[in-house]
Structure formats: C-alpha cells, structure tokens
Amino acid sequence: MKAIVFILFFVLRVVVNIPDVRGQDDGSADTDSLAARYAGYEDNEKCFTCHGGTIYEFTNPESGKKMRRLMPKSRVLSKKAFYNSVHHNFSCTDCHSYEFNTFPHPSELIFEEYMNCIDCHGGDEQFAEYHFDEIQKEFEKSVHYSQEGNGFSCWKCHNPHTYVPIARRTEDITTVVKISNNMCLNCHTNEEELRLFSGAKELDVSSAHDWLPNQTLHFQSVRCIECHTQINDTVMVAHLVLPKAKAVQKCNECHSQNSILMATLYKFKAKEERRTSGFLNGIIINESYVIGANRNKKLNTLSIVIMLATLGGILIHLVLRLIFIKNTKHGT
Amino acid sequence: MGHKLYLYPKWLRIWHFINLMLFFILIATGLSMHYSAASGWLVSSTGKAVSNVENGNFLMDFMTAVKWHNIAAIILCFNYLFYLIANSYTGNVRYYNIKEQALLKKIFIQARYYAYGMFKGEPHPFPVNEERKFNPLQKTTYFITMYVLMPLLVLSGIGLFFPELIPDKIFGLSGLLVNSLIHITVGYFLSLFMIVHIYICTLGVTPSTLFKGMINGYHEVH
Ligand code: HEM
Ligand code: HEM
Predict the structure, then answer these.
(1) Which of A54, B15, B78, B222 could make an S-S bridge to B2, C-beta 3.0–4.6 Å?
(2) Do the domain assignments include residue A148?
(3) What is the dihedral of CA A320, A326, A328, A330, to 10 degrees?
(4) Nearest CA to A136 among A232, A245, A270, A263?
(5) Among all residues of chain A, which has the CA nearest to that of B206?
(6) What is the distance in A from the centroid of ligand 1 to the CA of A316?
(7) Is A256 in contact with B195 (Cβ distance < 8 A)?
(8) The whole model's pTM is what?
(9) What CA–CA distance (Å, rounded) separates A8 from A293?
(10) How far apart are CA A160 and CA B137, in angstroms?
(11) Cβ of A292 and B174 within 8 Å?
(12) What's the mean pLDDT in A248-265?
C-alpha cells in the first residue's frame, strides 16, 4: 500500500510538478524565497539570530569564549508567525530603535516606548474598513483603559508581530472563538499578568460563570466579548469592554430570534449572508445550535399548520359526533 | 349493561399520570425556549445594530424554562425506564405487539370506523377484550410513541444535556444542530400525539369513561 502511494505520488509529482514539501521545515527552510518575498527579510535575519529561538549564542569579546544564554520568553519571536502576520513586510527597526542593531544593545533602549496601533493606523485610509480610530475611541471608554497608565495597551491582546485578522479570515467560527477567548484568558487566568494591572488574584473564571448552564459549551461556542462588551455598529469586533456589572446576563439576549449574536459573533457572516440570501438565522444554523435563535421559519410554519390541521380535524369530528350521535354511548 | 375489565394496573396508572404531568411541563418549557423573545431583528436591514431592543420572554423566563425542563426531563427519563421495565416484566407489552397479519388493512378499517362508521352506528370493528386492549390503529400508535419516539426524545435530550457526547458533525451539519432538530421534531410529534390521544380518549362509552378507567383501572365495555 505504502509503495503504491509512493509511486502514485512520484508520478503525480513528475506530471504536475508538485514541489516536494515532505519533511520540509516550515518558515525557516526556504530562506531564498522568503528573502525574495519580504522586504525586511535580510535586515531582520540579524535580529532573528538571537530572538528567533529560546537560546542565543555569542562570543565574549574579552575572553574569546562562546557563550550560550536563555532568551526570556517575552523576547522570543517565531519567524514563521512573523512572516505570516499582517506586518510581515516590516523591518524590525521600522518600529524599534535603529540602535538595536548594535550588540550588546545599549541599555538606554530599555526606555524605548512602544508604538500603538493608532500611531500608524490613525486616520489610515488604506485600512479604513478596519475603523482603527473608532476602535481607539472604544478602547478609551473600556475598563481596560483605566490601566493604561500601568502600561495596558493594544499589545496586551494583539501581538503586532504575529497579528492576523482572524475574525475576517477564518471561516470556522470555533477557531475564532478559541483564539479570541484565549486572548482574555491569557491575563484573566494568569496571576502574574493580572497583577501587572490590578491587585486582583487569579480569577476563577469558571466559578464566576457558575450560573451559566452548559458552561463548557458556552465557552467553546461564543466569545467572552459577546457578553462583556457594548455592541458597536461600525467596528467588526467590539472593543468597549464593560465593567463586570454591565455584562449580559439574560439568556434571551442571545437565545432569541433577535439574538445579539447576529450583531457580534456572526456579524461578518450575517452581512455576507444577508447580501446573498436575505435569510438571517441560517448562519447560526450551520455553525452550531443556539436554542431560541435557530428558528427555521419554514419548519415553524409547517409545524403550526400541522397543529392547526389536527385541531381542525378534531373539531370537525366533534361536530359530526354531536350531529350524528345523539346518544354518545358507543365505546371504542 | 356494560361490564368492566381490569386493564390498567396500578403501576401503569401511576406511570401514566407522572408521564402526562411531565409532558405538560416539558411542552410549556420547551416552547418557551424555542420561541424565546418577541419578533424583530436586533440587526436591522441596513446592518446596523438596533440597541436597547427589549428581549421579551415567551411564557416564562429562559432560565426558569431551562431549569424546569431539565428537572422534568430527568424525572421523565427514569419514569420511561420504569415503564420499559414494568411493561415487559408484567407482560403488558403483549398488547403492543404489532406483528400481526394484515395490520395495515386493519388500521385502515379502524380509521374508516372513526371517520365514517361510528357516525352510522356501525359496531366497533375491534372490540376490547382481555386479549385485545388496543385496536390495531391504537396499538400501532402506542408502539411508535413508546418504542420509537420516546427513545429518540430521551436520547436526543441526553445529547442536549451532554453536548460533548454528540459528534461534531453529522452528515456535514453541526452535530448539535442535528441533535436539536431531532429533539424538537420528536417533541413536537409527541405533543401532537398527546392532543389526538386525549381526543380519542373521549370516544369511550361516555366521553369521560376512558379517563375514569385510567384512574380506577377498569375499562368499561358495553
Ligand atoms: C414532550 C417532551 C419534550 C418536549 C416537547 C421537548 C421540547 C424541547 C424544546 C422545544 C427544546 C428547546 C430547543 C429549541 O427550541 O431550540 C428543548 C430543549 C431541551 N430538552 Fe427537551 N423536550 C421534551 C423532553 C425532553 C426530555 C425527555 C429530555 C431529556 C432526557 C429533554 C432534554 C432537553 C434539554 C437538555 C434541552 C436543552 C435545554 C435545557 O438544558 O433545558 N427534553 N426541549
Ligand atoms: C393529559 C394527557 C393524557 C390523558 C388525558 C391521557 C389519557 C389516557 C387514557 C384515558 C388512556 C386509557 C385508554 C387507552 O388505553 O387508550 C391512556 C392510555 C395510554 N396513554 Fe395516555 N393520556 C395522556 C397523555 C399521554 C402521554 C403524554 C402519553 C405518552 C407519551 C400517553 C401514553 C399512553 C399509553 C401508552 C397508553 C396505554 C397504556 C397501556 O394500557 O398500556 N398518554 N391515556
């Protein structure tokens, strides 16, 4: 069997000239083509030599000895993730100080201020559909903004090095949900991260949501932000994270015909769907099942028609009985 | 002049009573969940979210519906299990035997009687006796109800309880969706059955005879 597959594969390769990718190391291997594709590639290689992995090496100029050191996790960047991200065309020093080009890096660089999304994308016409300015405004109204002084910024959720607009690119809602929720849980279940911004101890997200039936299913199927943000018409993903007390707690905000999910999680799909078929609830139907929101109009109508027909039949029978059978004693 | 047959033993009457009470709860709460909230889209046709839409409740609060549906459902599962065991153990199951010669034809005869013959004063085509508690139509309906629809209802209900038991995809559709569709459809047909069942039960010697029978155990034959 294996041999046949191998031969078939070989023939196929010859015929359609498929490159042999078996065993190839993803991003790192095909250096030449990466260099051709990405503007900053060669510059960046210098940085990736140390920051591309968890261990870096250098030669001590005084002793001439080779030294190996661990790279702190927060300073490691996967090359593959970077070149797959939206910012793949940048050189590291487009955003970071040019002085990082020297090694060891000058110590004043610790004062380097990170740029925020809005520093480049404010008023950005090219990416107007993303509504960066609106997102910034929302963020400024959100609970997270109160921690801005302590260093809370876009980067806490969106890593600029690896960012991919997942909600727009992925067909699969489950993946969107997972990635989105992990963003929140990264800090909200991590005491160290959380302490950076508040005195709060590690939050027990699970017991805070005890009231929610079928918790696991909910966590897999919808994002935290479905309930914890204020819906916004313009932006794709709401950023106005509300205080705890204002979170959605009524089941039928989602479990209803006018489910808020249509304006949140399924927003992008909803717009597509409305354009093509004008039928709304169909979207939720194919992805998952939301009691109360997945209402198939045709089936519901049919069920009511059958019910009425049955009741009508019973009524007719009853009338006939009253007319024809004066004496109702007949027995089944 | 009628005489009486003891056809509904105590265990059956108790099962039946619990069953119908649970059905009332399950139907009311099921409907409430299914038709939760008033009509109108939260997202208007321009794609703008309409804020402050009041989400109404149908019959009761969603959470209440879920709670009582769950409670009633769990009791129903045990009650059904009890029925299955007792029905076999006591031999009452023999009345449900649908392996019978020319069943379809007999069903038709019975249906014709309900639709026509009874108004003409024709005699009952399949009179009740110790060996035949149900006429062929009734028997087939009870069989389908108790041995086809109820298992489907209970199993799909358990699927809703434990979504992790359901395969992710069934026929390329979301497993949750297929399971829920089965649950709602079967629940619906059982509700339909109940309505017709109650009506047919008024066709006794007097309209209340059969109901009394289900209380005291005796079937009255004339
Ligand atoms: C006559 C009997 C029943 C009817 C009419 C009925 C109907 C329904 C309906 C309409 C829903 C809402 C689904 C939707 O509209 O999207 C539902 C949900 C549900 N049903 Fe039933 N059902 C019945 C019996 C049962 C039984 C026997 C079980 C369990 C063994 C069960 C377990 C559930 C569960 C777990 C849910 C999900 C919501 C919840 O957790 O309460 N149901 N049912
Ligand atoms: C208010 C609701 C109901 C009423 C008033 C009612 C009434 C009756 C009556 C009077 C009988 C005895 C006559 C006969 O054998 O046909 C009966 C039998 C029966 N009913 Fe119901 N019923 C109700 C609900 C249900 C429901 C929800 C089910 C099942 C899902 C059900 C299943 C049966 C079965 C299987 C029998 C035959 C039991 C036996 O003798 O083995 N009933 N019912």
Answers:
(1) B222
(2) yes
(3) -90
(4) A232
(5) A329
(6) 32
(7) no
(8) 0.76
(9) 49
(10) 70
(11) no
(12) 76
CB contact under 8 A, B37 and A258: yes
Predicted pLDDT of residue B41:
36
Q: What's the rounded Cα separation, in Å, for the pair A84 and B45? A: 36
Measured in Å, residue B35 CA sits from the centre of ligand 1 at 13
Reported ipTM: 0.86
Measured distance CA(B158)–CA(B74) in Å, rounded? 9
Q: How far apart are the first and last CA of chain B?
A: 6
Range of the domain at A87: 22-112
| Position A261 in a domain | no
Residues B79-88 have a mean pLDDT of: 98
CB contact under 8 A, A258 and B45: no
Give residues 141 to 200 of B whose Cβ lies within 8 Å of A. Answer: 163-164, 173-174, 176-177, 179-180, 188, 192, 195-196, 199-200
Q: Is B23 in the pocket of ligand 2 (CB under 6 A)?
A: yes
Residue A12 domain flag: no
pLDDT classification of A11: cutoffs 50, 70, 90: very low
E strand segments, A105-246: none
Query: Looking at beta carbons, which residues of chain B come within 8 Å of A286?
Result: 173-174, 177
- List chain B residues with CB under 8 Å of A217: 163-164
A183 and A97 inside one domain: no
Residue A123 lies in a domain: yes
Q: In this predicted model, which residue has the larger pLDDT, A40 or A27?
A: A40
Partner A contacted by B221 (CB < 8 A)? yes
| Between residues B159 and A5, the one the model is more confident about | B159
Q: How confident is the model at residue A319 (pLDDT cuts 50, 70, 90)?
A: very high
pLDDT tens digit string along A51-74? Answer: 999 999 999 888 999 999 999 988
pLDDT at A5 over 80: no
- Nearest Cα neighbor of A147 from A158, A138, A139, A136 is A139
Q: Identify the domain boundary among A249, A270, A305.
A: A249
Q: Cβ distance A226 to A260 under 8 Å?
A: yes
CB B55 within 8 A of CB B37: yes
